[in-house]
Amino acid sequence: LTRHVASSDFLRDSGYINGKWTAGAATGRFDVVNPATGEVLASLPDMGAAETATAIDAAYAAQPAWAALPAKDRSAVLRRWFDLMVANADALAAILTAEMGKPLAEARGEILYAAAYIEWYAEEAKRIYGETIPAGQTDKRMLVIKQPVGVVGTITPWNFPAAMITRKIAPALAVGCTVVSKPAEQTPLTAIALAALAERAGMPAGVFNLIVGVDGPAIGRELCGNAKVRKISFTGSTEVGRILMRQCSDQIKKVSLELGGNAPFIVFDDADLDAAVEGAIASKYRNAGQTCVCANRIYVQSGVYDTFARKLAAKVEQLSVGNGFKSGVAIGPLIDEQGIAKVEEHVRDAVAKGAKVVIGGNRIDGAGTFFAPTILTEVERSMTVAREETFGPVAPLFRFETVEDVIAQANDTEFGLAAYFYAGDMKKVWRVAEALEYGMVGINTGLMSSETAPFGGIKQSGLGREGSRHGADDYLEMKYLCIGNL
Ligand code: ADP
Q1: Could you tell me the distance, in angstroms and rounded to a whole number, from the CA of residue 376 to the centre of ligand 1?
Q2: What is the DSSP letter of 447?
Q3: ipTM score for this prediction
Q4: What is d(CA 183, CA 169) in angstroms, rounded to the nearest whole number?
Q5: 185 lines ligand 1 (CB under 6 A)
């Protein structure tokens, strides 16, 4: 391990099954690489379907006792885990930056954000209320109780190596489910550190299990096909989400899916332009553009188009690109060569069809997978950037004339995760907010994610919600009790 993570007390070189650090029967190994430098950070056992099955058995055996604990006791374990994450936020952030690349300050922000879900659901654990229903007959009483669904399998991506995991397992564990978790192969070290802290917090054996490995399809098939798993919670691409939903259909297994987005970011003539520029920077360039809620299509009304482009370029010019450990760096590397190739293709396609590069537009030479923050103007709907998620630091600016026109364009996508708009007039604010076909709408803000609010998409962006009091519902079954002959 590099100097950045060598001092960490929380790294182990294996998965975690039934309270033991183990590689199972895995014989192969895989490397974890720092995308800013290309250096190998760690070598881990390549666990697969067999280890996943063992972990599922452990989670299945542990689940009844975990669910039977008073909610306050589960809550206390989660609370201790939260406290440990906060106390060790710097060390965790260093691990995250080393394997994923985002700037250290942003990584620290993610650790605290990830921990906030654990805190929130430690609190919610105590508030899983049922209900009573007035019965239609005098000799009957009717009520509803909530029970955990059982063993949950989670599969998560690399762009938020900590938060994507805690958003799922915090509510699952809080309500009495047990978990088998598979982090992305690019970022397993943060997940290992989280598991080490969970162990230290007193998580009973088998309650939280971690499988590390590169064969996502094999691990996924076991999680979806094994009848002891009652629910899959996935964050990642829409293609993989479709595969998992299909695989879960045989057993009518429950699924929560947080999939791709294609977020519109709309700036109306009456917007506060400086605020809109600031919001666009936050929404577009955070995590080097590698989030599913990043602004992907920026629509600017024609009266302010040129001014907005100029103001945005002035800010983008100041964004410093580099190794996330260097102070002042705002944009780290993209995750890998594939990420670079996609961004290059989107820019090439747009330019070939008439877009202008205002700033950036190319990969940065040298070690690591860096792409210059980019602004494209005169972007049209025939270009690939209009339809596909770019997942990189490219802001394509579309010009629009009317409210009707921009709503139609914004909704012209199979995705429906996040949308943003900047406007002044209250009538327009309500009209646009209600017309946008998205699970989340940021109004005069470029950042809206919070553990206190329901995060999730409609259309092909997914199923279910993470965070808020609603997030627990995804891990609960409702049971209706009817008591007769009273
Ligand atoms: P990304 O583009 O963010 O890598 P993916 O959807 O490919 O998105 O990956 C998200 C997660 O899904 C990762 O943990 C990856 O290993 C896993 N994964 C990829 N393919 C499959 C599959 N066929 N079945 C189950 N999991 C998969």
Answers
A1: 30
A2: -
A3: 0.98
A4: 12
A5: yes
